[in-house]
UniProtKB/TrEMBL annotation:
HAMAP family given in the database record: FabH
Gene3D superfamilies (alphabetical): 3.40.47.10
Pfam families attached to this UniProt entry: ACP_syn_III (PF08545), ACP_syn_III_C (PF08541)
Domain remark from Swiss-Prot or TrEMBL: The last Arg residue of the ACP-binding site is essential for the weak association between ACP/AcpP and FabH.
Catalysed reaction, written as an equation: malonyl-[ACP] + acetyl-CoA + H(+) = 3-oxobutanoyl-[ACP] + CO2 + CoA
EC number(s) from the headed UniProt entry: 2.3.1.180
Protein name: Beta-ketoacyl-[acyl-carrier-protein] synthase III
Subunit record text: Homodimer.
Region (ACP-binding) location: 260-264
Gene: fabH
Function per UniProt: Catalyzes the condensation reaction of fatty acid synthesis by the addition to an acyl acceptor of two carbons from malonyl-ACP. Catalyzes the first condensation reaction which initiates fatty acid synthesis and may therefore play a role in governing the total rate of fatty acid production. Possesses both acetoacetyl-ACP synthase and acetyl transacylase activities. Its substrate specificity determines the biosynthesis of branched-chain and/or straight-chain of fatty acids.
Classification lineage: Bacteria, Pseudomonadati, Bacteroidota, Cytophagia, Cytophagales
Keywords noted in UniProt: Acyltransferase, Cytoplasm, Fatty acid biosynthesis, Fatty acid metabolism, Lipid biosynthesis, Lipid metabolism, Multifunctional enzyme, Transferase
Amino acid sequence: MFKSRILGAGHYVPERIVTNEELSQMMDTNNEWIVERTGIQERRWYTPGVDTVTNMSAKASRMAMERAKISPEEIDFIVFATITSDYFLPGAGVLLQRELGLTSIGALDIRNACSGFIYALSVADQFIKTGMYKKILVVGAEIQSSALDKSDEGRSSAVIFADGAGAVILGQSHSDQHGIMSTHLHADGSHAEELYCIAPSSSGKVRISQEMIDRGDFFLKMNGNAVFKHAVVRFMEVIKEALDHNGVTKEEIDLLVPHQANLRISQYIQQKLQLPDEKVFNNIMYLGNTTAGTIPIALSQAWEQGRLKEGDLVCLAAFGSGFAWASALLRW
Ligand code: UT7
């Protein structure tokens, strides 16, 4: 059995910055409310005709490959977490494979929303452990802003979600001191409709109709309160599960990288775990919530900022639509 290790991380976010001020011109909201309830000051939204999930993830992937010091030809497999693929089908993985000029390697899509990246990492980890693949490109990327209801009705979701891409290269670890120690995946589908998007749906009469558009079936719908309440419980549970499984204490964590759902959720977890500020990575203040993109983007930025050092104990945790939640514990 091999152990897997993150060899490099990269990210890309669209150039367009959307401030709270700009949002307050579209809907009944204001900077004070958004900052107080979410911690977000600004976020990035895609520019139609310029940014796609494919080209953003390709940029993030190239950065990850460069930092891992590997060439595209060395990639054996792609695992792509997104719920906002450019096409309804085929999935995002094959489009990224083409964009990177890779031929015939497998490409797998994961649709677990905010927990998608940890699910993807877990799948890639199993392939490396068994020796089936040596280097896997693991991606989390989204364009959420095109699914946001920017009227007063959709304001609680519209102020949170954003666009961006992150990627890591997972490879074999040649030392016991580095690598993924464990991953923990959970779901509870009984809450599916607390955060969901109805259309395009395969089980209706047609997948797209004027009626569906008029009804707003293409918008992301979220019961923010319900999601928040479950999130704070599940985040804590799944982090504890990872720590207990590996026989380590919360004090030993060097960096917690939570899915960037809402700064208040991250602060709640930080407080419960009694971690000092330097041990928790947050970038939601200026990037918003990019669903499957948040954790790989955060890893890339944390590495750039020198907050990830060889041998550091890093805990990843996420909660979101499904509900699905997950954690991973690793030595950088
Ligand atoms: O990514 C993973 C999944 N997502 C999450 O984890 C998100 C979890 N949920 C949240 O982050 C929060 O629930 C929200 C940020 C979405 C909402 O914050 P909240 O503190 O739960 O607010 P609320 O929904 O309880 O609404 C409080 C008030 C309401 O007004 P009334 O009924 O008290 O008069 C809302 O209508 O705030 C109002 N409101 C807003 N006001 C200004 C809701 N959205 C806005 C807004 N601007 N954007």
